[in-house]
Write a structure and sequence with these properties.
CATH topology of the largest domain: Fumarase C, Chain A, domain 2
Shape: elongated
CATH architecture of the largest domain: Up-down Bundle
Helix content: 55-70%
Structural class: mainly alpha
Strand content: under 5%
Number of domains: 3
Number of strands: 6
């Protein structure tokens, strides 16, 4: 399923070739700084810089014997470089390479996801403004509550996407660290200045204090942030699924010409992409849980986190990239039915204005308890009889003794109910007048 849409840039970040390339970038950056400090002869650095490369198939062959991917990688590089390779990896441990390179990959993946969210926000903003004044019923517990607008639903999603963008920026900044501090993080065989210069060269910050590894709370933060974003997309998907139900049908996924909804029932138009997004959000949450499990390692490090991260880091970024792409496409082509919204708005025959009536009575001096009882009595009678609520209110002697016909009529005015919509739009930065 996901193979039908895999963003080339995102997939490339997690390719084996790019993984090794990032390892080599780290090793070369260390060699360059050590050469500047006079720790590697300049002629040896020239050899390393011009010849350093690797052969992925050769790495696999070597790893089959040594059972250590970094050693296999270094051996392949050494075969390309020759004698000068003895200066590569001096004073370093495998995790200096692995964790620093992983941070580079996560930084690149995070930047692509931020770009995705910005595109998503653009679509949400456009459609929110389009439907700013399209009145629909607001629901609580799935039951009709009070009027709102469809644009406000989208403005809410826009604001949440904005928060998600900020969360992701923070998560990318948190993971943007490297370490070149040796076997237990003490710089026993390297000077801290080397780490600082290498990280600066790579666009990273030094991990202030580490063990053999960059601490995994950073990776857990990143994965949890992706899970939160996925949960937001799931929320939107679930709402659209509810709106597409036959009994509601206020909006639905775009249904293309020739598309089929069911192998058995030709009439079906199912919210399959929204259901897919809801399902994939579960994977992102489970991956976040795996990231949290990785935080606690034995002493200065064990390797239990490694196998997990080889799955959850690429999978989570690729999945969220896919989910953002699909949700953006859904919102861009979402079919919206204002007439059905109007019809649904009228299903309770005016009961949705009960709070306005309650407050009008309170403002006239009735206690809240007294006013609530009067309005509820008429409301419950309307539920049973099916009579129009406004008509029933006009017949109630206790209410009409307090409120005039005009005051009652004002309680049923949509313009009054929705007079602050523009204010909300301005507050979230959507200026659709």
């Amino acid at each position: 399923m996901i193979s039908r849409y895999t963003r080339p840039e995102m997939g490339k970040i997690w390719s084996q070739e790019n993984r090794y390339r990032k390892w080599l970038d780290v090793e070369l950056a260390v060699c360059e700084v050590q050469t500047e400090r006079g720790l590697i002869p300049s002629d040896a650095w020239d050899e390393i810089r011009t010849k350093a490369d690797f052969d992925s198939r050769r790495i696999d062959e070597i790893e089959a014997t040594v059972q250590h991917d970094v050693i296999a990688f270094l051996t392949s590089v050494a075969e390309k470089v020759g004698p000068a390779s003895r200066f590569i990896h001096i004073g370093m441990t495998s995790s200096d390479v692995l964790d620093t390179a992983t941070s580079l990959q996560l930084k690149e993946a995070g930047e692509l996801l931020i770009e995705d969210i910005r595109k998503f926000k653009e679509v949400l903003a456009r459609r929110a403004i389009e439907f700013k004044d399209t009145v629909c019923i607001g629901r609580s517990h799935g039951i009709h509550a009070e009027p709102t607008t469809f644009g406000l639903k989208m403005a809410l999603w826009y604001e949440e996407a904005r928060r998600n963008e900020e969360r992701l920026k923070e998560a990318v900044e948190t993971i943007r660290v490297g370490k070149i501090s040796g076997a237990v993080g003490t710089f026993a065989h390297l000077d801290p200045e080397i780490e600082e210069k290498v990280c600066k060269h790579l666009g990273l910050k030094p991990e202030p204090v580490s063990t053999q590894v960059v601490q995994r709370d950073r990776h857990a933060h990143f994965l949890c942030t992706l899970a939160v974003i996925a949960a937001s997309l799931e929320k939107i998907a679930v709402e659209i699924r509810h709106l597409q139900r036959t009994e509601v049908l206020e909006a639905e996924e775009f249904f293309s010409s020739g598309q089929k909804g069911s192998s058995a029932m030709p009439h079906k138009r199912n919210p399959i992409i929204c259901e897919r997004i809801a399902g994939l959000a579960r994977l992102l949450r489970s991956n976040a849980m795996a990231g949290l499990e990785n935080v606690a390692l034995w002493h200065e490090r064990d390797i239990s986190h490694s196998s997990v991260e080889r799955v959850v880091l690429p999978d989570s970024t690729i999945l969220l990239d896919y989910m953002l792409y699909k949700t953006t496409a859904i919102m861009d082509r979402l079919l919206v039915y204002p007439e059905r919204m109007k019809k649904n708005l009228e299903l309770t025959r005016g009961l949705i204005f009960s709070q306005a009536l309650l407050l009008a009575l309170v403002q006239k001096g009735l206690t809240r308890e007294k006013a609530y009882g009067l309005v509820q009595n008429v409301s419950m009678a309307c539920w049973k009889s099916g009579e129009d609520f406004k008509v029933s209110v006009g017949k109630d002697k206790e209410i009409t003794a307090v409120l005039s016909k005009k005051e009652i009529s004002n309680c049923f005015d949509l313009r009054v109910q929705l007079r602050h919509v523009d204010f909300i739009f301005r507050r979230v930065g959507l200026f659709g007048e």
